[in-house]
Amino acid sequence: MTGATLSLAQQLLGFNTINPPGDEAACMAFFADWLQVQGFDVTLSGFGEKRFNLIARLHGSKPGKPLAFTGHLDTVPLGNQTWQYDPFGSDLTSDRLYGRGSSDMKAAVAAFAVACVTHQAAIRAGKGVVMIITGGEETGCDGAKALIDAGELPPVGALIVGEPTANYPVIGHKGALWLRCETRGKTAHGAMPELGINAIYLATEALGKIQHFEPGAAHPLMKKPTLNVGRIRGGLNINSVPDHTEFDVDIRTAPNLQHATIRQNLTTALGDNVTISTLVDLPAVLSPQENGWISGVYRRCQKLHSATLEAKIMPYFTDASLLLPALEHPPCIILGPGEPGMAHQTDEYCLLSRLEEAEMMYGELITDWQSSEEV
After folding, report:
1. Which long-range contacts (CB under 8 A, 24 or more apart) does 292-298 make?
2. pLDDT band at 373 (very low <50, low <70, confident <90, very high)
3. Left (φ > 0), alpha (ψ -120 to 50) or beta: where does 191 sit?
């Protein structure tokens, strides 16, 4: 691994980009300046106060679409547990780079950015490279939505998503359907509950039904869809009958399931006392393993793994859910040095050995693309 990759990773980790509330401004400005110094054409675009996306290009001289990398610079909050190590990237111990966003996924962004710089001559003699760097991914791909709505996405031939996979090539991930369920009752004095309608009781009935709700059939690779109630809120004070309750449902799906059908079936199952609204609607991603470029990625990655590589998916979602349809569905691989199990964890870290592997791997994929016949 070059010192440039570790240095850039630590500098990106040094910016507080925790989302919510979300503030990528300083980090994106730093990265934009770094890329411009390295020869990239860079476009920064805002999508709210202190919220930014970035598109960087190294143009090629050969006909054909460029290879694209994508990653996000926002991170989840630190959590309630105390960190032993600096969450902003200053701590290295043995083979670990600590920091919030080290695995998910600032180290990957550093690795593919430096790989592009290292192989810039091949890129300029080939078909070029594009980097799509987003904010707001952690709260439902808000930055990617803004790029799509603004019509700012360039054409690309293939997409590499640097999310944490421990450098294992992954061909897809589950979709995410986040729903808010609300019950409404009638308030009354807590000493005279018979005069009201308790919205918490209505929600409790609905939650009992949700425990037995099946979102749909299993997928051969992604298995059964999952459902989790992750948050509930109701009532204003102890001595009043609550007239409003809401709870949020996280459903993870596969390509064989239609989100509109799942929502309608849940609406029917919960009945008239529950109103459902959609918070996040991100489709599943699954690229064909037999695609020639994806097969080539597998061949390149095989030397990093002792067991024969197999088709694999991840349970989390990525910006690819929205980017792929907007980019007209190029082949896509999810491939990053981060540890999937460390994402969102206290004392999150990325292994330096995997970071070194990723920089090398990204470089090989870059040079392969420039000389390939893929368009």
Report:
1. 292/374, 293/158, 293/331, 293/369, 293/372, 293/374, 294/169, 294/171, 294/331, 294/333, 296/368, 296/372, 297/169, 297/333, 297/335, 297/365, 298/169
2. confident
3. alpha
Distances (CA, A) of 99 to 35, 76, 88, 94: 22, 11, 5, 14
Residue pair 54/171 in contact (Cβ under 8 Å)? The answer is no
How confident is residue 34, by pLDDT bands cut at 50, 70 and 90?
A: very high
* pTM metric for this prediction: 0.95
Span 295-312, pLDDT tens digits? 999 999 999 999 999 999
Q: What letter does residue 346 receive in the DSSP assignment?
A: T
Average pLDDT over residues 223-247: 97
CA–CA separation, 119 vs 114, rounded Å? 9
Q: Please list the residues that pair with 70 across neighbouring strands.
A: 132, 161
Residues assigned a catalytic role: 74, 137
Residue 269, SS3 per DSSP = helix
Ramachandran region, residue 344 (left: φ > 0; alpha: ψ -120 to 50; beta: rest): left
